Structures are given as C-alpha cells and as structure tokens.
Amino acid sequence: MSKKIFSGVQPSGNLHLGNYLGAIKNFVELQSKKDTDCVYCIVDLHAITVKQNPKELRKNIRETLAAFIASGLDSKKSIIFNQSSVPAHSEAAWILSCVARMGWLNRMTQFKEKAGKDKEKASIGLYAYPVLMAADILLYDTSHVPVGDDQKQHLELSRDIAQRFNNDFDTKNFLKVPEPLIQKNFSRIMSLKDGTKKMSKSDPSDLSRINLMDDKDQIINKIKKAKTDTLPMPSEEENLKNRPEVKNLLEIFSSLSNQSIEKTKNEFSGKNFSIFKENLSELLVEKIAPISYEIKALLNDEKYLNEILLEGSKKANELASKKIKEMKKIIGFCE
Length: 335
Ligand code: AMP
Ligand code: TRP
Hints:
By secondary structure, the protein is mostly helical. It has helices spanning about 15-30, 45, 55-70, 90-95, 100-105, 110-115, 125-140, 150-170, 215-225, 245-255, 260-270, 275-300, 300-330; strands at about 5-10, 35-40, 80, 145, 180.
C-alpha cells in the first residue's frame, strides 16, 4: 500500500529554522521515498483566523512557496498549492463542523493559547481551526501527516472526526483515519535566547531565531549572540538536563548534519564553547545561506511562482473535488 502524505504550513511570514528542521526538511525527504504521494499545502484559510493585512498575506503566500521550493520541494514530485484555491476545503470544513462536537473543540489547547484571556473576542474561525485542518487531511485519503508535536492534539481530533463521520453515515473507512508522523528527535527547536521557549515567528526579538531569509552575516551574528553559559561543552547526556540552551544548539547541529546528539556531543566534549559556536555557524551558513539566497531569487520571479501554484491547485482540485462529491452523496445532497 502506498503512503499518502499531507501537511500544511501557515503563510504567516518569517519562516525560521524551527519550521525547516521540524517540518520542511522532513517534507523534502518524504517526497523522494518509494510508493509515497505527497501533498503540501500553504494554508491561507487558516491564516485568516487572525487578522491579516491583504497585501502582507499575498506576500507571505509567495514567500512560503519560495521557501518550500528553495528547501528542495519539487512540484514535479509533490503537489504544492494554496488552500483557498481548492474550494472543497471550505465545503468539507462546514460539513465536518456539523460532525465535530463542541466538547471536543473545547479541549484544544492551541485555541486557549491563541485566544488568550478574552475568548469572546476570538473569531469563530480560530475556534473551528482544527475542523478545517481535519478537512484538509481527510479530503486526500491521507495515511500520514508529518507535523511538529504541537499539532498532535489537532491530529487526534481529525481522527475522531473521521471515525464519527464513518459511524454516523455507516460508511466504514470512507474517511481514512490518518496517522501522525512526528519526528522523534528535533521535533521542537527552541529560541536562541531562551532554551525553554519554542523558536517562533511571533517572538519580538529577531535574535531569538534564524530566519530562512537570513544572510551569512546575520546567521553568524545570531549564533555569536545565542545564549549559553560559562561551562565547557558537556561530556555526558546527564549534564544537559539543566542546560536547555546548550541542548538546543547541540540538537540544531545534529539535525543539520544528520547525526545523533551523542556523536555531536563526543565531537565537542570538553572543548571551549566558542569552538562549537564557530562550527555551528559554519554549518548553518552552509545549509541555510543557499536557501536564503534562492528564496530571494525566486521572489523576483513571480510568474514562475504563480505557475507552480496553478499547476498544484489543478492537481489538488482533481483529487479533492472527487472526494467532496462522494461526501455530498453520502450526506444526501445529491444522487
Ligand atoms: P506553523 O508555522 O506554526 O504553521 O508551523 C509549520 C510547521 O513547522 C508545523 O509542522 C510546526 O509543528 C513546525 N514548527 C513550527 N515551529 C517549530 C519549532 N520551533 N520547532 C520545530 N517545529 C516547528
Ligand atoms: N495547523 C497547522 C500548523 O499550525 C497547519 C495545518 C493546517 C496543517 N492544515 C494542516 C498541518 C493539515 C498538517 C495537516 O502548523
């Protein structure tokens, strides 16, 4: 049986090293695997669950696409498109919102975090966000969903919604129940300024993250300023427990060089921190600076980017419109 992969990334600007190591790098590896069909979606409908400036949104959709392509996603191997160009996503989201239960959504921790203290002012879209995510996944008969571990709860909800629909309409296995694909290591890259906080595009300090559009000098400067401590590099795993910043930098090095933390630790054990930072900078510049350069080049070629989205949305539409048609028949909208 072939694997069907679906994942989505919000076009909210400032894609960073966390997005790359936690998601996009994995997307690129999956697209080259045998018997694996990949669909990658720029989820612009999800983006508008919080206020967006239309010009910025347009720019961020292009930037996310450019980051996908510059990182190695290939529109000949994967379907790459933006969510709003395939109407079935919105249609399925409505249908599934009549299947999902308030009680299930009330448990979603991301809504609680994003809505903050004043829940009454949050949009209905922000609350229903995970139902749209379920629609994304279920429309493509997805078997596996690669995401960071912050999305695990939403994926559980997608599974519940699929099962409930199949039960309610007595259509066993019509909606495929998806499995999460969460990386065991490096699933959470932390801030360069505080090793207990996730690296995030919304952190006000630009020094807290490496952006995929940073150039060589910015990368070197950020690693120089990254928080560490006065101890030498650790020799035992144990020594990392109370050193979250050091652990994070070791993880970044290991993930970028595709080697175990153990191996990285042995390589630098007992050495002066500045030597490790120099090596980490070099590695980051080698891996990220070409992506940054390529993103900027792609952004100058709007026509090419538009063509990719058009080609992707045609392919996605073909698959999704078939599934939504069947869904409508099952519900009783048509014969
Ligand atoms: P978002 O930008 O929140 O739409 O996230 C896009 C993808 O990147 C999701 O799969 C997230 O789980 C992943 N991601 C975002 N931030 C991080 C981080 N700091 N470390 C690892 N993965 C992340
Ligand atoms: N909610 C995801 C995030 O914030 C993005 C997303 C939307 C997604 N639809 C999806 C991820 C479907 C995986 C599958 O990261």
